[in-house]
Amino acid sequence: MKNIILFLAVFFSLTLQAQTENQPIHVTVSGKGKPVLLIPGFTVPGESWDDVVKQLENKCECHIVTLAGFGGEEPIAFPWLPKVNEALENYIIKNDLKDLTIIGHSLGGTIATWLASRENNSIKQIILVDALPAAGALMMPNFNPDDLVYDNPYSNQQLAMSEADFDQMATSMSQGMSLNKEAQRKIKDWIIMSDRKTYVYGYTDYLKLDVRENLKNISVPVTIIAADKPLGKEMITQTYKNQYANLEKYDLRIADNSAHFVMFDQPAWFMVQIQQILAL
Length: 280
Description:
GO terms for molecular function: hydrolase activity. This protein is of the alpha/beta class.
């Protein structure tokens, strides 16, 4: 009898563990007030929003997201991004987040546009931080999402990359994403911490995602907070005009002397914009 009880205890423990692991998203909640969903960029955990949350949580209920495979969270089966998108949509519905504001950085902003384009959503407005609806189209001539597959020479090379080479690549990438030395260190650490397959195949998912047609279905206010580096204001403005051509109206705000992580490079200016948009 003791053996049966022990077996059942272990069985139910493992079953519970299986049910709680390998989720597409992981969300923590802080504060009370207006609901705000904060979605980070690729490889970046929810803690990237810590300083923003500290200044919002006295008036906002902040739902801070970390995506599977990043920030130490367990990876999930591929395709990765469609599962993430669906999980976020279900989270909003399940938690009855009415009049919701979504703040999304980079990939998080792309996801925010997808969510805002869905029928019968409860989103009040979206704030996109250096985010494009089709990053792949900007990076590749003759862009066709169907041409992007997991099994390709570049992805295979990254999967086989040594820890030292991956570390060097992460260092180089982080230096282009922020002008802030401390932020560069954090960004590098987040890249290295990411699950390697999620990093490689998840990025393929990211490049495949093209929500430019979906923009026609967005009726809520959209604010885009962009960085002026490295292209300069004129080219940045034209890039966003091209990518968001199907969006009827948006408010573009460009941060001076900032790279991709605007919240790290211009934190005071960034918070002024957020507080104005949220009318806090």
